[in-house]
Design goal:
With 541 residues, the chain is mainly α. The chain has 23 helices and no strands.
């Protein structure tokens, strides 16, 4: 059931209507039922995966929380016995209590480790088994071994990377005592499976989502109105922009030998536009649906193409994924025992400057390697992730030179220099995304190189771009749609566009605007005869 299908639109309308009609006690069970119905249509066999991850992490969270309560009660009891003098020093002394506390914490850590390891193993098996076999076969081939391992037929369940990370963060947060474990299994199952997020995120935290998710919301016209406006805007970006430019991107990627030089630059720019409109459009639909139900979901984008460097870009793009990797991989790695020992050793043997950087850079390397392979079980995604790492590290190392340059050449407040920084970020990120386009590392480097060896830039003005599967009318629609999207982003820099419309426009005028936008989707959306509304790009993750 694709977000762009009529079945999904009907499903959402029915679910929202039932949500506000049913009694309070039936509201969250309806969302759970609706989420599993939605997932059933993605493939009934995939229900076993999401159910398994849910059960494992639910039990792990429950055991951790139970141990914490028992340990805290026993610790208080031992402390009271020690204070009254009725307990033995071996049992109630300060050192004994400290030892008991550490033992119980170690038990909880083992439970957490087992729970998240099993959940991640399920993800690893379905997503990385054939990638592992591919690499093993490559090694066997290099050594001229006579046998090869056969690939397995494993379908990748929709959204498994998203709901697995969401479930893993829940277990870790219970262990960190950020919230208690959810005792009601079905409520926890709703948190893991909440259907708008299953396709492409955001990756919500239990502490952020749970309260509003389980609270029975009453109907408010303004809430439904704002959610519906967000949904319409998402469909505009997806159907009018992303899916319209998709045939041109596919044409150039599918036969790279015919589209070198300037065409590669066009792939970079076209794919950047497609990916942004596709991903942010999908997130708009997700957040809008949740908002129609009265459930706030974390924002996942903050105008990333206005970023002045790559590090800032990643603070604005896929925000919930970035913060997940930061909170659950980077920070724990940075303060782990082995990393602290490495820092101490490197400061002693390699100098203070290198000693400070080495642990941080190693943790960053692991994070970006993991980020790459999370996006897909393929070397092109790994190289893409490490490419981001290299660019960010080089930028950090060159920071002193940048500072000297800025002291000599005053660029503060310079619109020209800011525009240069933004343009530079767009070009670097678009170039790195070529690994996503061509899906082959050597081919990507080869195609990138042709931009400097094949001088065919005349294609931009001689009509060659009209033979990529889209015509002149499509380019006009794309140009106007992109201008509108850019204008909305510019306006949003000083606050929510919907808030501003509410303040300045009456209800009727607002709906004239969004009805017109809906008509644009119906008339100019890339669907119908000759088109196939594409799945969202992040479905594959």
């Amino acid at each position: 059931m694709l977000f762009t299908s009529y079945e999904f639109i009907g499903f959402v309308i029915l679910l929202v209507a039932l949500y506000y009609v049913l009694p309070k006690k039936a509201k969250w069970p309806l969302l759970l039922l609706g989420s599993y119905v939605f997932y059933f249509f993605a493939g009934w066999k995939f229900l076993f995966y999401i159910a398994a991850v849910t059960i494992i992490t639910y039990v792990a969270g429950l055991l951790i929380s139970k141990n914490k309560k028992i340990a805290d009660a026993r610790f208080a009891e031992l402390k009271a016995l020690d204070k009254s003098g009725s307990g033995s020093p071996e049992e109630c002394g300060k050192e004994a209590r400290k030892r008991y506390k550490e033992e119980q914490k170690s038990k909880r850590r083992r439970i957490m480790t087992v729970g998240i390891t099993i959940a991640l193993l399920i993800l690893a098996v379905v997503k990385y088994t054939n990638f592992t076999i591919y690499n093993i076969n490559g090694i066997l081939s290099a050594f001229h071994a006579p046998k090869r391992i056969n690939f397995l037929t494993i379908a990748l369940p929709m959204g498994i990377s998203f709901y697995t990370f969401q479930a893993v963060s829940y277990v870790i947060d219970v262990y960190r005592d950020r919230h208690e474990a959810q005792k009601n299994f079905f409520k926890y199952a709703l948190f893991v499976s909440f259907f708008p997020q299953l396709v492409q995120g955001p990756i919500s935290r239990y502490g952020d989502l749970s309260k509003e998710l389980f609270t029975p919301h009453t109907f408010h016209g303004r809430t439904v109105e704002r959610g519906l406006q967000r949904v319409i805007w998402g469909y505009f970006k997806k159907l009018v922009i992303a899916d319209r430019i998709l045939p041109a991107v596919n044409t150039m990627i599918d036969t790279p030998e015919n589209f070198k030089g300037a065409y590669v630059f066009m792939v970079m720019m076209f794919y950047a536009l497609e990916l942004y409109a596709d991903f942010t459009g999908g997130i708009d639909i997700t957040i809008g649906i949740a908002e129609m139900l009265g459930i706030p979901v974390k924002e996942n984008f903050e105008r990333p193409f206005f970023s002045k460097n790559i590090a800032e870009y990643w603070r604005r793009w896929h925000i919930t994924m970035g913060t997940w990797f930061t909170d659950y991989i980077f920070y724990p790695l940075s303060v782990s025992g082995p990393m602290l020992k490495l820092g101490k050793w490197s400061r002693k043997h390699l100098g203070e400057k290198v000693g400070k950087r080495l642990p941080v850079y190693l943790a960053s390397f692991i994070v970006w390697f993991t980020t790459g392979i999370w996006h897909g079980a393929s070397w092109n995604f790994i190289v893409w992730g490490l490419g981001n790492f290299v660019v960010i590290m080089i930028s950090q190392e060159l920071e002193p030179l940048y500072s000297k340059f800025h002291k000599r050449v005053n660029t503060d407040g310079s619109t020209v220099y800011k525009s240069f920084q933004i343009g530079r970020t767009i070009l670097i990120m678009s170039a790195l995304r070529l690994f996503d386009c061509y899906r082959d590392v050597p081919l990507t480097f080869k195609m990138f190189g042709t931009m400097f060896t094949t001088w065919n830039w005349k294609i931009v003005g001689n009509g060659a771009l009209l033979h990529l599967g889209i015509g002149r009318a499509d380019y006009i629609i794309l140009a106007l749609g992109t201008i509108l999207m850019f204008t909305v982003s510019m306006i949003a820099r000083s606050g929510s566009v919907r808030d501003k419309m509410e303040k300045k426009l009456p209800f009727a005028a607002r709906w004239v605007v969004f009805t017109f936008l809906l008509l644009i989707i119906v008339v100019f959306g890339a669907y119908g005869l000759g088109y196939d509304a594409s799945q969202f790009i992040y479905n594959q993750f």
